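Predict the 3D structure for this chain.
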Amino acid sequence: MYEYRYYPGATAIGIVARSGVVLAADKRVTYGFTLMSKTGKKVFKITDRIGIASAGLISDMQTLARSLEAEARLYFYDTGNPITVKGIAKLLSITLFNRRLFPYFVETIVGGVDSTGPHIYVLDPIGALIEDKYAALGTGAQLAISIIESEYNENIDLMQARDLSIKAIKAAFSRDTVSGDGIDLILIGKDLIKEEFIPV
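Done. Predicted structure below.
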């Protein structure tokens, strides 16, 4: 008797550039090796300066994105100041840890720009929190991270980081059958937030 393991495929990337952050993910939604949709959204704008990119179950991503967006808005109403990237990442970390017995099935990159500069934070499904300069998550992560590591440098500008994200995710598409169908990106700078779709 065969045992089938169903898991959602994805490739999600975050890169810190000199003047901002790029978050990117593929659009394919799978359940095991069954293609459910070619138009899934895995990159979400949380505030005008913060976004998330995720790999995992779409429903859990959407729930967390809506919750973070609401909490960020409440924080602004209460304090009069925008929440920091670390603040959103820490809030998400606590949310995930509190659900550790019945976890959200997501790996998440929180990225954005605040008064201290551009940052990305990587979180696992139970809330471990690590700040990094670049990250890749999901089933295509090994292929994507190899491209990023070979070309990344700390002086990279935002458009170079965008191009590197696209190149890394396309490399994952070439070998990871459960990632594909285009790339969603969010480019976040000090005075910029731009969402893009790249057909592949």
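The CA atoms of residues 24 and 185 lie 4 Å apart.
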